[in-house]
Automatic annotation (TrEMBL):
<dbReference type="InterPro" id="IPR003781">
    <property type="entry name" value="CoA-bd"/>
</dbReference>
<dbReference type="InterPro" id="IPR036291">
    <property type="entry name" value="NAD(P)-bd_dom_sf"/>
</dbReference>
<dbReference type="Pfam" id="PF13380">
    <property type="entry name" value="CoA_binding_2"/>
</dbReference>
<feature type="domain" description="CoA-binding">
    <location>
        <begin position="8"/>
        <end position="105"/>
    </location>
</feature>
<protein>
    <submittedName>
        <fullName>CoA-binding protein</fullName>
    </submittedName>
</protein>
Length: 136
């Protein structure tokens, strides 16, 4: 698993972070801020769409609003909702290479659909933990 995670995190340039929160005390906000120092992070949250983050990205309402190729979709939604996010990614995003489901997010059928479409999948992990753990 470490080899897969290392490959994803070293090859990724653009991340769509679904479930981003504008509240600084929320994990999705802190992780996005951490990742934004290494990657282009495009936050996705329908309730915050149009806001501009501290790192200069405009929040999108949905994945289909992203106009650039995305390497990784990072999902901060519950396990049940992850399937819908994966399906939207498969339908609307170009350049996608990996689906990353955050800590506590596991959806095997969605992972299988993503894998069948040629994407790499990580579940129940956080890139903000994995990057320092792997020395990346």
């Amino acid at each position: 698993m470490d080899e897969l995670i290392t490959r994803i995190l070293t090859e990724t340039r653009v991340i769509a972070l679904v479930g981003w929160s504008p509240k600084p005390d929320r994990p999705s906000h802190r992780v996005a801020a951490f990742l934004s120092s290494r990657y282009r992070v495009i936050p996705v949250n329908p309730g915050a769409a149009g806001q501009v983050t501290s790192w200069g990205e405009t929040v999108r309402a949905r994945l289909s609003d992203i106009e650039v190729p995305v390497d990784m979709v990072d999902i901060f939604r519950n396990s049940e909702d992850a399937g819908q996010v994966v399906d939207e990614a498969l339908s609307h995003l170009t350049g996608r290479r990996a689906i990353w489901m955050q800590l506590g997010v596991v959806n095997e059928p969605a992972a299988a659909r993503a894998g069948a479409a040629g994407l790499e999948v990580v579940m129940d992990r956080c890139p903000a933990i994995e990057i320092p753990r792997l020395g990346l």
